[in-house]
Amino acid sequence: MRFHKIANVNKALEFITSKGVKLVSIGAEEIVDGNVKMTLGMIWTIILRFAIQDISVEETSAKEGLLLWCQRKTAPYRNVNVQNFHDDPLGNLNLAFDIAEKHLDIPKMLDAEDIINTPKPDERAIMTYVSCFYHAFAGAEQAETAANRICKVLGVNQENEKMMEEYERLASELLEWIRRTTPWLENRTPEKTVAEMQRKLEDFRDYRRKHKPPKGKMVSDIANAWKGLEQVEKGYEEWLLTEIRRLERLDHLAEKFKQKCAMHESWTGGKEELLSQKDYESASLMEIRALMRKHEAFESDLAAHQDRVEQIAAIAQELNELDYHDVASVNQRCQSICDLWDKLGTLTQKRRELLERTEKLLETIDQLFLEFAKRSAPFNNWMEGAMEDLQDMFIVHTIEEVQSLIAAHEQFKATLPEADAERQAILGIHSEVQKISQSYGVKANIINPFSTITMEELLNKWEKVKKLVPQRDGALQEEMARQHTHEMFRRQFAAQANLIGPWIQARMEEIGRCSLEIGGTLEDQMTQLKQIEHVIVAYKPNIDKLEGEHQLIQESLVFDNKHTNYTMEHIRVGWELLLTTIARTINEIETQILTRDAKGISQQQMNEFRSSFNHFDRKKNGAMETDDFRACLISMGYDLGEVEFARIMMLVDPNATGLVSFQSFIDFMTRETADTDTAEQVVASFRILAADKPFILVDELRRELPPEQAEYCIMRMPSYAGPGAPPGALDYTTFSTALYGESDL
């Protein structure tokens, strides 16, 4: 019965679910009713769970792991590159199926022709087939693993038996080794030097490190012997370390004594000769004071080394008390250091007295040197600055700048008498120094330590300043004359440029007004443009004359002109733009005339087209951009979708420049006006939007039309007066006929 069949299938589904298989949208009823699609889907889920899902290679998913396993197993084979489970040629498939059935007991589940003739073979079927290969090879690997495990266990057991025999032999040798080693460890005979004790310690460490560890294979019958060995070993090690520490202490003190003596002797080397030299006899006052500061620093350093001398004596005393084996050399070295120390103290005091006496002799000369330095440095700086200013290569561009330089130069000349008085005062100080040096017979080389400036340098610079002053006067007067000439050139150029620049702008505006006029005919515009062109050509000599004035300015290296905002480059660009604009505008008007005559467009239509184009030519460059062209079409009543607008752009802008010229616009509009919509077509279109109702609602207009067109219709469409209309219904029929002049609306 159906009921029993459903119950039986539910038992099977419960078992499948308990094994972790997720069954989605499948029940017992579908299987009992023979739903092939659902049944096959459930079978694939079972295959995926029990044959494929457990396959994992390097923590990948079942599908990815199975694919990775296939790639690795086929890697050594040439011309094999497995990338998925649905691509393979016919010959390879038949060969694989035959070998699998013959050697691996894998039944042939698929026909190669079915796989090849299918554009994309079923991936699940291929995965199921390949999983059989995976499990077949996995079973073979498990048998090999089991055999290896048995061999490993037997090998371990055999090795254990060999180790037991070896252990018995080593135990016997160990007892004999302990009996030989114990007397050596009980020997406490000390050595005299640390090196010899270190050798004993190294022997002991070799025993610990090399000889003892291999003997450590103990059993219970040799435990006591081994324990006794370790006790003797511990006592021997403690004795070695204590004796080494004692000898190290002596060596440390001796080494410390040597280091401090070496440092002290290194410091005292050459100090006796230094204190005995007579360098102060030929030194200047600054050098004497430097020697005094240096001597004071030496005295401080000498006092600081007193502590080291005391430390050397204390260490020598301790070595004597500890009966150091080389104490005689220690005492001799210590005495030598103490004797030299006393001598250095005596020489230091004597040198201080000589330096102080020499310092007083040179103080008078030093005061004069200081005064000379204080007054000569500013005076020298003033003269160097004056020479730099007088020789400065001034760069000016205006008469006012030259006048400013002349005024500054006159102020400088007014300061010369005061500077000459300062020169004479400095010369007097120098003469006084020479007089004192000769009177007292000073042996020192009389050089001013406060200044590197000599009196000879000051006198030479003063003479040079006096020569440069009249030279500067002449250069400033020459520059003034040159700037007057430049100013004349500027004014001549500015007078012409201030007339030509506005004239060019006026002609440009006149051309623009002419091209935008829509009141007259194209022939009238052409006549007016020809007249403007004649005026422009006749104005060319004025441009040539301005070029001549500009050439004079360039040759004179004049780069600015405050009398005009126009440059020659501005005038050239404006003139070329004027010529280009008049030629282009005439050409456009001629083209419009030809288009009008060829396509039968009335003058009124042409004016309307021109008006619309001029309005949306926002940049006024004779072409509409894409967005402006779209807005223009919408304002003229076009209902544009993206596809329709793209089609129109292909017509008006075939080169995809993003610009629509007036000629392209005219060509498009002439084609459009030749095939206009009728009032009936517009009414039919509104009826579609109104879902076949004789009226249309405000919400429908706003939903179906662009916002601008929807509001336009709402403002102008009359209310619907027919029967059954809801409030706010609008009469689109009357509105449509009014658009074409067929109604009084």
Layout of strands and helices, then pairs:
Elements: H1 2-18, H2 28-32, H3 36-52, H4 62-73, H5 90-103, H6 112-116, H7 123-186, H8 194-211, H9 223-268, H10 271-276, H11 285-304, H12 306-321, H13 327-390, H14 399-414, H15 416-440, H16 455-516, H17 522-538, H18 540-555, H19 568-599, H20 603-616, E1 623-625, H21 626-635, H22 642-652, E2 659-661, H23 662-673, H24 679-689, H25 698-704, H26 707-716, H27 732-739
Antiparallel strand pairs: 1-2
Helix pairs in contact: 3-7, 4-7, 7-9, 8-9, 9-12, 9-13, 11-13, 12-13, 13-15, 13-16, 14-16, 15-16, 16-17, 16-18, 16-19, 17-19, 18-19, 19-23, 20-21, 20-23, 24-27, 25-26
Domain Calponin-homology (CH): 1-51
Family: Belongs to the alpha-actinin family.
InterPro entries: Actinin_actin-bd_CS, CH_dom, CH_dom_sf, EF-hand-dom_pair, EF-hand_Ca_insen, EF_hand_dom, Spectrin/alpha-actinin, Spectrin_repeat
Textual characterization of the structure:
- Residues 153-180, 288-322 form a coiled coil.
- This protein is mainly alpha-helical and 745 residues long.
- Among the domains are: 157-261, Methane Monooxygenase Hydroxylase, Chain G, domain 1 (Up-down Bundle), CATH 1.20.58.60; 284-453, Methane Monooxygenase Hydroxylase, Chain G, domain 1; 492-672, Methane Monooxygenase Hydroxylase, Chain G, domain 1, CATH 1.20.58.60; 679-740, EF-hand (Recoverin, domain 1), CATH 1.10.238.10.
- The protein is 74% helix and 1% strand.
- It contains 27 helices and 2 strands.
- The chain has a two-stranded antiparallel sheet with strand order 1-2.
- The model has no long low-confidence stretch (mean pLDDT 80).
